[in-house]
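At this stage, I needed to go through a protein sequence along with its fold in token form, as given directly below:
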Amino acid sequence: MSQTTRALPANLMTLLMPLADRTLILPQVSMAELVSYHPTRGAVSGPDWYLGQVEWRDLRLPLLSFEAASGSKPVIHDRCRVAVINALGEREHVKFLAVLLQGIPRSIRVEQNLESADVPLEPLELGAAKIGGEVVKVPDLAALEQLLEDEGLI
């Protein structure tokens, strides 16, 4: 039996996703769509990072503030956008989740040997890197999904 191995790509298309207090970096394929933010109607009960649900393609997705989920304050204004993120696939009933952004993500190609940044990590962050002098954080999407599940939101 022959075994096939695939080489890792020399570079990867990513998205720099602006938050109020940091920038996240994700592979471009992890975002399903970017949509406008519309405040949810009615009272939203739950933790302060849970901003209600958004309707997207006939689905109702939990919307969260990554900043608040990792210990900061949620920031909401008229320039916010919602990133619909592909779920990791560990839960059959969860295909997508929604994260509030503070603007429009920037597409950038990064090299495989990205320079790491020696900075403190907040909860829900796996690592940090430097891109053009800017520190970007790698979110822990599995932990984010677990947080939603622990609160009964997915």
